[in-house]
Amino acid sequence: MIEINYYLIVSAILFCTGVIGVLVRRNAIVIFMCIELMLNAINLTFVAFSSFMGNVNGQIFVFIVMTVAAAEAAVGLAIVIALFRNKESVNIDEINILKW
Amino acid sequence: MSTESLIVFFIAGVVMVGGGIIVSELVAPTSKNAVKDETYECGIPTKGESWVQFKVGYYLFAILFLIFDVETIFMVPWAVVMGELGLVAFIEILIFLIIVSLGLLYAWQKGALKWD
Amino acid sequence: MIQIKDLLEVLPLLIIAFSAIFILLLEVSIKKSETVIFGFSLIAILAAIATSFNYFNKEMIIFNQFLRISNASLTFSVIILISMLITVIASKSYIEKENVNFGEYYSMLLFALMGMMLMIFANDILIIFIGLELMSVCFYVLAGFLRLRQKSNESALKYFLLGAFMTGFILYGIALIYGITGTTNLTLIFSDAKVLTNYVFIIGTALLIIGFMFKIGVFPFHMWIPDVYDGAPTVVSGMLSTAGKIAAVGTILPIILAVNILNFKIIFSVAAVATMLYGNVIALAQTNIKRLLAYSSIASAGYIFVGVASMNEFALRGIAYYLIAYTFMQLGAFIIVAMLEKKDDGSRDYKNVDLDFYKGLGKRNPVIATFMTFFLFSLAGIPPFAGFWGKYYLFFAAIKSNQIWLAVVAILLSLIGVYYYLKIIVYMWFSESLEPVSEEKFSFSDTGFAATVLAVIGTILFGVDPNLFFSLFKFVTP
C-alpha cells in the first residue's frame, strides 16, 4: 500500500507543471494542453482521496471533470479554428488587437 | 512495496530503456546521405509544406467524436450497478441517452455528418 | 432515491432546461424560425420568473441534498432571470444588425441561464461545479459569437484560456476541501466546526473563493474584464457584466458567510478598496465606451465586495439591492451602446463606440440621450435612481459591521466615479458633434428600445421606492 502522500505530491507536481506551462508557453493549443494537464492532476488528487477514504464521491467528481474537460476542449478547439480562419495564427503573441 | 524496491525498480527501468537506446546507437551500422534526411524515404521528392489546409469538416468530426466519446464514461458505472438497481436505473439512463441523442439529431440536421 | 415530487420544486429550472433543448430542435426543424424562437425563449423566461415566486418562504433541501431552495437563492435567481429577460429582448435587433441571426444564440443564453440558476440553488460543490462550467462554456461561445469579427474571436479565446485556467484552481480547491472533509455536501462540510480551522481546508476554500473572485472581476483577478467586454458582442458584454457576476456573487456569498472567516474580513476589505480604486481610476482614461463600462463594472465589483466584507445580516440586503439596481443600469447602458453601434460592414472592429461619438448625442437623438443620462446618473449613485439606494444599503452594512473607514473610503472612491459618468453626460448634452454624423435613424420598433424602456422603468421604480424590492422578495427587516 503506497501512502496517500505520494499520490498527492505527484499530483501537486503535475498541477504545477501545468500552471508553469500555461504561464510560459505561447501557443494557444499548447496552453490548452497544459490546462488539461492541470485537470488531470486534479483527477489524480480526487481518486487518491477517494480510495484513501473509501468514499466514491471523489470518483463521481472525476467523471464530471472528464466530461467538462471534453466539453471545454470542443468549445476551445472551435474558438481556435474560428480565430485561425480569420487570422492564420494560433500564437498568443500575435493575438494583439485587444492588448493581452 | 517498500521504498527500496521502488528505487531499484526506477533505476532498473532507466538502465534498461536508456541502455538499450545507447547500445543500439553504438552497435548498429548507420549510413548518412541526403536521401536519408528526407521526410519519406520512398524515392519521390516531397512537394510543398506540411502545413496544408485541411477541410474544416475534419475538425467538426473530431469535435463531435470528442463529445460523444466521453458520454460513455457515464454508462460504465451505470452498467456496473444496473443489476442491483433494476428498472429505475434503466429509465434514468434512457432519459440521459435521449438527451444525448437529441444533440446528435441537432448535429445531423445541421449537416455536420455530411461529407462532401 | 429521487422522488417525482422533487421535480415540481425546481419548476423554474426545468422550464429553462427544457426550452433550451427544445429551441435547438426548433431551430433545425423549422426554416426561418428565429422569430418563433425569440418569442419562445421570452415566454420561457417569463414563466420561470412567475413560477419562482411560488417558492418564497419555503426553505427546503431537495434531490438527495443536492439543491437548496431559500429566499436568498431565489432572490438572486429572479434577478438573473430579469437580467436575461432584458438581454433576450435587446438581442433580437442586435443580432439581426450583426448578421448572426441564429436560433442557437437564444439556446446558448438559456443554457447559460440554467447553469447560473443551478449554481445558485446548489447545496453540493459538485452541482456548483457543473453549473459553473455550463455557464462558462456558454459564455465562451457567446463572447465569440460574431465569428467573422477578429475582435470577437480574440475576446472568446482570451476568456476561454483564462477561464479554463481558473477552473483548474477552483477544482484544486474543491479537491482539497473534499480531501479534508470527505464529502462534497455543503451542509455537511460546514457542520463540523473543527474542520473550519484546518489550514488545508482554508487553502482549499481560498482557492475556491479566488476562482469566483475571478468570475466577479475583483482586483487582482480583473485583468480579463476590459478585453473580453470590449471584444464580445455588446449585448453579450452587458449580459456577462450583470448576469454572470450576479451568479458568481450569489453562489460564493453563502459559502463566505458559512466559512465564517471573520478573521479574514480585512482581506476582503482590502480587495474591495483595491478593486474600487483600480476600476474608478483607470476608467478616467478610457476613450472607448465599452472599455469604460467594463472598468465601471470592475468598480461595481468593488462595491459588492464592500458588502461581502461586512459579513453581517445587512450584507445580503445590500448586495441583493445593489445587484438588481446594477442589472438595470449597467445592462441598460450596454444596450444603448449596442443600439448606437454601426451595422456590420465586414470590418474587424466595432464602430461608433468611441466617446467622441457621444458628443452632441442629445441634439441628434434626445430620447436615447435622456435614457443614457438616467443610467449614468444611477451608476454614479445620484438619487432618485436605484443605484443610489444600492450603494446606500451596501455602505450601511459596512458601517453596521464597525468598518466605518471602509464606508468612507468607498464613498470617496465612488466620487471619482461620478467624474467620468458626468463626462459622458456633458459630452452628450453640452458638446457639439465633432464631424457631421450621418443621420442614422434609430427606429423605435427596435427591440433594443423596448429593453431600454424596461431598464429605465426598473432604474426609476426601485430608485423611488426602495421598500418595494424588500417586500417583493420577502426580506425580513433585521
| Physical arrangement of strands within the biggest beta sheet of chain C | 1-2
Secondary structure category of chain B: mainly alpha
- Helices and strands of chain C, in order, run as HHHEEHHHHHHHHHHHHHHHHH
Averaged pLDDT of chain B, please?
A: 82
Helical proportion of chain C, percent range: over 70%
Number of domains of chain B: 2
Structure description:
The complex is a heterotrimer of chains A (100), B (116) and C (478). With 100 residues, chain A is mainly alpha-helical. In chain A, 78% of the residues lie in helices and 0% in strands. Chain A is built from three helices and no strands. Chain A is elongated and about 50 Å long. The N and C termini of chain A lie far apart (47 Å). Chain B has 116 residues and is mainly α. Chain B has helices at residues 3-27, 56-70, 72-85, 87-109. By secondary structure, chain C is mostly helical. Chain C has a domain at 263-478. Chain C has a two-stranded antiparallel sheet. The A-B interface holds A 2, 60, 63, 66-67, 70-71, 73-74, 77-78, 81, 85 and B 1, 56, 59, 62-63, 66-67, 69-71, 73-74, 77.
Search tags:
heterotrimer; B: 116 residues; mainly alpha; 2 domains; C: 478 residues; two-stranded antiparallel ribbon; 2 strands
Give a brief rundown of this model.
The complex is a heterotrimer of chains A (100), B (116) and C (478). Chain A has helices at 4-24, 28-53, 57-87. Chain A has 100 residues and is an all-alpha fold.
